[in-house]
């Protein structure tokens, strides 16, 4: 008598399985420790540098200094480390051959990719928020020691800086998810990581070398500048998109990369 095929695991079990695989990967603990340490250290060092230079500031310079958004400099470190985490989540299974076992247990490949997306998105939000909060707490005593403005309840109630901070946190999963998608497409951690870092940093380098028209009409529609248009305060400057344009641009890039990864995963042999 033939046995009935086993039922596929529930959605929550698939997500839990992807979370356990992410935790078990070599390097995940290192990334989780390095992010807060390096991000906080960078923020404190820059705060000390700003404090040393503040003696020559005018009253207008002191008034324009924003202690609420300053901790976002820690996002340079945490953002890159989260990209590495997203790339590893997509590529390590191919290198170890575990992807065959994953797809045997969960034949619906789209569900597997969606579970990875959920895990990386949540990890990015939590990680970026934690590093930013630690950097903010560490920088405030430095600002106070040098007589610079520091965060008060009135600053948090002002609204505009908090909205910018919330936008930066909300956009934290964008590049880790692009890294995940490119890792599934290329099956190579090195290739995917190089591609994501190029998307992240190349527009800023090329912007100074190309005519202004290219920066305003081509480079500004790439994922990095479009995300900056939402998370930076100078969104009305040349080279930045309005929020009404930047949101669909970022969403379209995510849909393009993740859609291509889903189609590739479903059509290509494991």
UniProtKB/TrEMBL annotation:
Q: Which residues cross the membrane?
A: 29-52, 72-91, 112-139, 165-185, 197-220, 240-262
Q: What GO CC annotations are associated with the protein?
A: plasma membrane
Any single GO molecular-function term of the entry would be: ABC-type transporter activity
Q: Which UniProt keywords apply?
A: Membrane, Transmembrane, Transmembrane helix
Question: Which superkingdom?
Answer: Bacteria
The protein here is known as ABC-2 family transporter protein
Instruction: State the species of origin.
Output: Frankia torreyi
């Amino acid at each position: 008598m033939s046995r009935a095929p086993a039922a596929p695991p529930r959605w929550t079990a698939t997500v839990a399985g992807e979370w356990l695989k992410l935790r078990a990967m070599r390097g995940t603990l290192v990334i989780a420790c390095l992010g807060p340490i390096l991000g906080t250290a960078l923020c404190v060092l820059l705060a000390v540098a700003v404090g040393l230079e503040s003696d020559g500031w005018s009253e207008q310079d002191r008034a324009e200094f924003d202690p609420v958004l300053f901790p976002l400099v820690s996002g340079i470190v945490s953002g890159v480390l989260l990209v590495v985490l997203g790339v590893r989540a997509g590529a390590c299974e191919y290198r170890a051959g575990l992807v065959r076992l994953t797809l045997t247990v969960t034949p619906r490949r789209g569900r597997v990719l969606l579970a990875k997306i959920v895990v990386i998105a949540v990890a990015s939000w939590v990680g970026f928020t934690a590093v930013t909060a630690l950097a903010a707490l560490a920088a405030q005593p430095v600002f106070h020691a040098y007589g610079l403005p520091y965060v008060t309840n009135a600053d948090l109630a002002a609204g505009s800086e908090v909205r910018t901070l919330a936008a930066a946190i909300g956009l934290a999963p964008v590049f880790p998810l692009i890294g995940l998608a490119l890792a599934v497409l290329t099956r190579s951690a090195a290739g995917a990581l190089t591609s994501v870092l190029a998307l992240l940093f190349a527009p800023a380098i090329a912007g100074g070398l190309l005519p202004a028209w290219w920066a305003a009409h081509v480079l500004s529609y790439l994922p990095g500048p479009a995300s900056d248009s939402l998370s930076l305060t100078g969104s009305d400057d040349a080279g930045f998109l309005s929020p009404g344009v930047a949101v669909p641009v970022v969403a379209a890039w995510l849909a393009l990369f993740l859609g291509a990864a889903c189609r590739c995963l479903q059509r290509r042999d494991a």
